[in-house]
Amino acid sequence: MRIAGVALIMATTLPAVAQDNQSATTAVPDRDRNLTFMTSKGWEWELNAGLNIGGATPLGMPREVRKVRTYNPKLNGSLEGKATKWWGADRRWGTSVGVKFETKAMKVDADVKSYHTEIIRDADRVSGYWTGFVDIDYDETFFTVPVTVDYRINNRWKVNAGAFFSVRTDGSFSGYVKDGYLRSGNPTGEKIVYSANQRAAYEFDNDLRRTMWGVQLGGSWRAYRHFSVNGELSYSFNNIFRSGFNTVEESLHPLYFNIGFGYTF
Q1: CA distances from 69 to 26, 111, 112, 133, 253 (A)
Q2: Domain identity same for 5 and 54
Q3: Could you read off the pLDDT of 75-102 as tens digits, one per residue?
Q4: What CATH number is attached to the domain comprising 248?
């Protein structure tokens, strides 16, 4: 009886299992056929991951900065989905649109003279001109939409150039000063001295700009059928701070090089 029961269960379940397996097997070729069809129409889909190396930099070294002691690019990741439409019979030229989630950050220690800033002293903000050591810690997270024109050199190499638009989702610009003095209000104002063991913090998180745009230039080398190595240089035309913010007098522009890899579907 037990054997007969097992046989009955197998007889009723095996066809259903076989049907499910057949459906799953059919779904994979359908997906492959869809990708093949899109590829035949000139479409290409990529998933890219990389690291941003760079910083928020002025358009020249300010005279107030006398020495850069240390520079730390931090670990800035990026993840991007990208679609490319290749044109013409030879598929040399194309247009790409992407959606990227990325971070841009840096940490710098420097010696400055008469550097305009605003420090926190006894819970009050004091603006003036700082001479001495300054620590800068910058960190922003963006959703970025790049739009580029692509050129395929051969089956392995392609280059691209275009513009991007970014929306900041989070960010901070903070640090501290020590081992120096602040001239309150103006370069000849009251002198507030801080020793090497005394720190005064500053924080301009709420003064960061919300949106940014700029240009980018990149290239890609296809190492294998589906995998590629990518490089990209981007520069923002905007100052990282909002309009009307004058505490940091120099205009700081994100300049970053992204190095990473991609998977082509």
Answers
A1: 62, 7, 11, 9, 20
A2: no
A3: 999 999 999 999 988 899 999 999 999 9
A4: 2.40.160.20
Structural Rg of the chain based on CA atoms: 28
Distance of CA 247 to the CA centre of its chain: 26
pLDDT of 15-74, one tens digit each?
Answer: 444 454 554 444 456 656 766 666 667 799 999 999 999 999 998 888 999 999 999 999
Q: Which domain holds residue 2?
A: 1-41
Question: Rounded to an integer, what distance in angstroms lies between the CA atom of residue 91 and that of residue 114?
Answer: 56
